[in-house]
Amino acid sequence: MGHAQAPGAGPNVRRDRPAPPRRDPGAARGPDLDRTRAIPMLDPVDPEQTTQMSPVPSVPDEDAETTAQQAAVESKPAGKSLLKASGMMAIATLISRITGFLWKAMLVWVVGLGLINDSFTVANNLPTIITELLLGGVLTSIVVPVLVRAQKEDSDGGLAYTQRLVTLATVILGVGTLLSIIAAPLLTAVYVSGGDGQANRALVTAFAYLLLPQILFYGLSALLMAILQSKQVFGPPAWAPVVNNLVIIGTILVYWMIPGEIVVDPVRMTDAHLLTLGLGVTLGVVAQAAILIPALRRSGFRPAWRWGWDKRLSEFGGLAAWVIGYALVGMLGVIALTRVATAFPGSLAIYQNAWLLLQLPYGVIGFSIMTAVLPRMSRAAADEDYDRLKADLSLGARLCTLILLPLSVLMTVFGTQIGVALFSLGEGAGGATRLGQALVVSSFGLLPYAITMLQLRVFYAMKDSRTPTLILAIMTAVKVPLLYLCPVLLDDDQVVLGITFVNSFTFVVGWIVGEVWLRHRIGKLGNKALMVTIGKAAMASIWGGGLALLAAQGISMVMPQADGAGTAWVQLIAGSALLAVVTLGFMLLLKVRELDPVLGRVKRMIRR
Hints:
The protein is mostly helical. It has 21 helices and no strands.
């Protein structure tokens, strides 16, 4: 991933810069397709996470740069507006991550990390998985690009196409929702293995009856977000998930105030706790869709039933097959993980909360880096300028390394303290330590996850949706057997640690496979710069982590309750600050050149 062309590059690498490729008339324009990237899609590792792992191919336009330059010259206010929208979306994304984490932590505090949480988690994952199969990946990769084309080409500004699209999606989602509700017991049997002490099948099914209606509203909210974003309306789509999270937070507060707890033997659909949690969480998704309707009306869209098929959608048939295949392969991995985890009480809830914590740095920082680098990679791929493409890939990987590797060391050193500090309130006290241990054994996967995501975006930039599906298939082929080995090789209380380890290890495999595949496609990547950055960042982080660990041990010796939440918070805060200072100091001593722009800006601010 170096800046210069590596010697002996593969035959596919052009040493002279060719003329840009001709645009396929059926392809969407690059800048327009880029607008769809904000649509949250299913993560095959954890269906509750919106980490953009689903295919979002980039189809660059040969005159994208010229168009962008003209737009910059002709419309300075528009540029400022776009920057303002980007800042607002970043804030909304951060708040969405925080509130999403908060309601999951609150659920642990109220119901614990046992059978009820496991059963709810299985049922609450079903709507997102089914929505993805019905509409999700196809919506992002196919429907929205055609929507943008219709807005530009059609005399009515794409109104008829949009109405036809909403009609078709509503019917597909409605029928899918109805069939899913009818098949709720079958879906439960697919995801939960039977047996005593495991996630309660009857409770999962009862929750599923109340939560599966989310399919309709998840799908419609994704479609409405796409329509608004194609019209350059970014505020409501960015804040809609926050509204969803706030409704769920209110639901959990109501649940907590109801006396008693869910009765699981026998499960009753009239149980007040069951109805409150199930209907309240579904109401959050309804609110997420409903808050978009006023903005949609203001944008000029008039809802109306309109039937028929737009022939432009047929142009993307081959792409649709790979997109659906991607979702299906991801679903196989989720099924295997869920069946193994639900066989051991609390394991699924512990796994998903540990994965959520691991996702926070990537969701807030790593994805921002990817979003900034992605347009550059798309333009380089459009020009078949593979030197520039590899340089941008290297830059993104090195920036992720500088930020995510120290955070990975922090989670390794203080994972247990993080689990105790965040989840030991109320009913969560029993599993908080094990959750922290799960974070410790899986935190090594944070950087491989980010680089794997970055590699997949390179393939999408080259208009290749097949290779990411094949890479995911290889990752799943490695993951599933290892998951089923965990109960064979580990004690019951250690199985969840094995599951989280396997999940992170899968992304190491993905990184290696993606590296090999990219070398085959565009030649040697020139990884010297990346390896140097990883080495320096690892050395600095290890020194910082070691000193922070010593400080934490000293704190535990003087605090009255060495294993309590208060001690965990003190250790975490003091250790994090020490690790950050020491790591940054060693990076400066090691002259990590990626820090030069930051240092230059700081020096300029001091001079002022």
